[in-house]
Amino acid sequence: MESQAEGRAAAGGLATRWVELVVALVIVGGGALVIKDSMRIGTDWGPDGPEGGYFPFLTGWSLALSGLWLTGHTLWNWRRMAGQVFASWSALRPVLAMLLPTIAFVVLIKLIGIYVASAIFIGAFMMWQGKYKLLPALAVAIAIPAAVFLLFELWFLVPLPKGPVERLFGY
Amino acid sequence: MIRSIARRTLALAVAAAATAYLPAAGAAWEPTKPVEFIVPAGTGGGADQMARFIQGMVAKHNLMKQPMVVVNKSGGAGAEGFLEVKGTKDPHKIIITLSNLFTTPLATGVPFNWKDLTPVAMLALDEFVLWVNSESPYKTTQDYVAALKAGESGKFKMAGTGSKQEDQIITVALEKAVGKKLTYVPFKGGGDVAVQLVGKHVDSTVNNPIEAIAHWRSGALRPLCVFDAKPMPYPAKVTADKSWQDVPTCRSQGLDVEYLMLRGIFMPAGATPDQVAFYVDLMNKVRALPEWKKYTEDAAFNTTFMTGKEYADWVGKAETRHRELMQEAGFLAK
Amino acid sequence: MEDVANLMQGFAVALTWQNLLFMLVGILLGVLIGVLPGLGGANGVAILLPLTFTMSPTSAIIMLSCIYWGALFGGAITSILFNIPGEPWSVATTFDGYPMAQQGRAGEAMTAAFTSSFIGAFFAVVVITFLAPLVARFALKFGPPEYFAVQFLTFCSFIGMSREPPVKTIAAMMIGFALAAVGLDTVTGQLRMTFGHTELLQGFDFLIAVIGLFGIGEILLTMEEGLAFKGVKGKIDPRIVLQTWAKLPKYWLTSLRGCLIGCWMGITPGGATPASFMSYGMARRFSKEKEKFGSGHVEGVVAPETAAHAAGTSALLPMLTLGIPGSPTAAVLLGGLLIWGLQPGPLLFVEKKEFVWGLIASMYLGNIVGLIIVLTTVPWWAAILRIPFSIIAPVIVVICAIGAYTVHNSFFDVAMMLVFGVVGYVFKKLKYPLAPLVLALVLGDMAETAFRQSMLLSKGSIEIFWSNGLVGTIMTLAVVLLYWPLMSKVVEGWRGGMQPFRRNKGAGAPPPAQ
Q1: Residues of A in contact with B13 (CB under 8 A)
Q2: Looking at B197-211, C373-387, C390-404, C448-462, which range is the least confident one?
Q3: What ipTM does this complex have?
């Protein structure tokens, strides 16, 4: 593992220090948001114990302070972390190859329902990443949503998001 | 191999879909797909039990061609469920309500109102009973009230379900009637509340009959009075010598507080009279079953049934009353 | 001895061929429900409840409770194979179960999980059989301060054991607490951190976070390392069951501890999920092989599974005797009892003897049947890992999406799952620990509510947490556990005082984190 990571560092990639910095800043931002909201509902220790915002207020501050500490830590070690790579460009490509279709899949669920979206997602991913031919890809792409349909929609009566195709069949 | 299975599964799915899409002959309107019965509360509570009971009866007696599916949407004290129905025109969604139809928008400011929905039918009204532990010295409502008046404010602890909801509204009304404060401790479910009283962690509760009946029968709890205008009409003995009918009204015991909780059905706005009529008819069929009779008896419901304008008027009045009660208690969202 | 006679009578009730058939159907359905993150035990029971109205109450509850056992068994399967907890109480099983699968030891991990589940459940059933009235009274002693104490104890038993940088551990935990606070505050009825968005009303469900952080995050990590599970093509040998069994007696103490924690948490009712975390935490703390935890250690599978199943089973006791459900599934079962006209409560044991003892007998039988069924399926489950990643990855994503959607029937949750997936990937790479985040998310809301309820009762005085022997003992135990690492160091330092260089014997290894 270790030697692999070093090998990648040589090839260049997304610098760890930038990712660390962004994550730390997001944590600070999140903490600020929590603090702001808890002030709205009251952060005191009233006569009947803590108010609604008491614990979130503490949580928010701990979050913001740990985020600040991590920001400072990253900046302090900025030069020392120069060589560290979060993930090399070549390693990030397959990650995006998974992430982007998944994002597209989630958007598709919203537009055309989960069944058709799953069929497209599974089929396309198999053909694109697995280099499968059309027929096997099609078989899996239809079998899985069909099984899910039987199991959830018909047997367990759990309604899942549906689109125009299902409406055509009266669902 | 995989392909043949896939084909068979698909064929099965298509066949199932086709049989489900039989056109309704004769009837004015009928569901053409499964009906979602939304419960704006968690699993196991009173509303959930009633919805699942109706679902079971519909399935058992074949009252509807399409299946009925119970869906819990309890987020934000039920706001999630109400917003779902508010945001749709689909007549295949109906919702069962509890008092949070009024209390949630008033207390949290989440934008919805019963006027965003179409009232279908009132199924029953749930009673509230004042309970104490049977080892406590309070044998009657008068004992309890006298002890409240004699003690200092906040000494008595009342457990209830949720915050700024029905149980706390009753508690505030009780405080006003007696002139002393109680310490109200909110819990998540009615069952937990009853057990807290059995374990003597609190002094009293205002549990619904069904939530506490088991502990009354086992001798752990004692009902003092019911927050209704007249006693519950169930003469069957619950314990060796007492029935629900024997529990006096709080008013008759000098504690002038009355509260009932709506268990009714609503559907999305813009529903046609035909669609409403279908569900009213369905509920009438459920109400005619012997199982329903036993169920309402066990839960000691007030079985007032209303539909149409009468129901809408009742809901309108109940909303005004909740607004007044919550305003007095200072529960309105700022 | 009257109990034994009753139990025998119960066996006679349960052992009709019809009831055995219902048991079988129930277990199989339950395993299916447990495997799919979209279907929880509560779903399964709720959905099948209407179908059971035509059966006798005894048969119906036997089938429904078998679904429940099946789901408890099944939850471990996806945790081990894909790092996706099928049920909330299987999260702790992923910590060691998934690394085992990655090393090609999926069969061993599953055998250990199923066997431990069985032992936990069996122990709980014995407790229910002989101690029911006694135990029910114990549960009544639990008010808000006691609940808080138990949650605090869970937390303390788990904390301070991560190897990641301490500030990152704190940050991760605080993220969990912040997420847990989103939604409606039970005590005041105020909305917190919803910022006017109706999607946020329901808060962040633990299951969505876990599916995203663990499931989707793991898929992204796997993609980065190339399109294959590393070395999972382990041989599928039915003998693996016997080989694993030979190893398990070594961990009897962990098992026993898991059983006790599980029963206690199930009865009080703290729930199966905190029980599994607490048991894992304790096992790790007191194990002789601490350093192996988290890298595929069988003990790390035994501990949470024993506790989860013991808790899940004993949760039925407060339901039957007090009418308080120990879990969401038990809540739905409770609804079923009421619909069948059975009144849960102390009198149920007197008035409906046949029903109660039939149910208890079916717990024995159901678990034995369940164990046999799931053990025979081990090779089949392990075979799933042979399916090429380019097929299984999108299928897992689809199943995760369904799982996230069904929690609240909300599309927003599917989108959140994706966000959690990316967070899980980034956090894993930056060494932010995920376990404290998840634990804080599970316990945060419950613990805060219990704490504030206690404060209402005591008028803001902390002393309530030491106001009686029970709560005081639990709190003290929690504080001891919290400082245990420190204390064990002091003890070690004191003992090793004569050899100042002793602690450096592991030279070259990274310094231990606080």
Answers
A1: 146, 149-150, 154
A2: C373-387
A3: 0.91
